[in-house]
Amino acid sequence: MIAAAQPGKATKPSRWLIVAFVVSTLFAMNWAALWTLGVITSDYSSHFIENFTLNAVVWVATLAVLLLQCAALVGLYTRRHWARTVATVASGFWALTIGGIPFSALVWWSLHKRWEPGVDSTFTRDHPSAPPYVVGLTAVGTALVLVWLWFLYIYLVGLLQQLNPSAPVSGWYWTTTLALFFSLPIWVVQGLAFIGLLQKYDWGAILAVITCLLWIMSIIGLPFGIAGLFVLWRWQHPALRPQVSGAPA
């Protein structure tokens, strides 16, 4: 099989941009480690399924943030053209901390005004569209947010009301909304992967890889995630292969 031609490297990003994502990756790693400890040490003596599901989903969300930061850092460092969108999404989560808003704005300005990534897509005649299985996996993963909303706002709130009938129901809604907030990275990554693949952007393929890894880490979705990675490997899209040495800068 003749390998499809890869685009040249993007322009070299600012050094401070690389440093910013090194720092964000370290923060995301610590956040994921803390949640890992939380999942392990939590008390599951009562209502195991509900407690474990709540903790596990938020834990997978911390992995989504970590994988996004890692992908953005690697993409920028190796000057891959898909890095701008991935880094934009990754730094967007900084803004959710409120204190990270100015840093997100600065990174977005640098990515979109000071850095030229080159092409947006390497979908060609040899790679006209994404594999249906991967597109379907990202679609199903995105649609699962509806199940999550049902679990949080209908099932879980109802259960908490039964256990504590004297507590105001508004307090339980605030609790479940907080859980939804912390789980947002899962749904954002999968939703953007689905959109990117449908619209034939290379960053969609990168986010699809992250989606498959999240399915694997969820344990329940292990076989589906492994199958997705295998399909992506068979797809041999240029965005998913190492940059050819000697490509023009």
What are the key terms here?
0% strand, 8 helices, 249 residues, single chain
- Alpha-beta content class: mainly alpha
Helix content: 55-70%
How do the SSEs run, as a string of H and E?
HHHHHHHH
Number of domains: 1
How many alpha or pi helices? Answer: 8
Overall description:
The protein has one domain. Helix content is 69%, strand content 0%. The longest helix has 32 residues, at 132-163. The protein is mostly helical and 249 residues long.
Describe how the helices and strands are arranged.
Layout: H1 15-41, H2 48-77, H3 83-92, H4 101-113, H5 132-163, H6 169-198, H7 202-217, H8 222-235
Helix pairs in contact: 1-2, 2-3, 2-6, 2-7, 3-4, 5-6, 5-7, 6-7, 7-8
Describe this structure in a few short sentences.
By secondary structure, the protein is an all-alpha fold. The chain contains 8 helices and no strands.
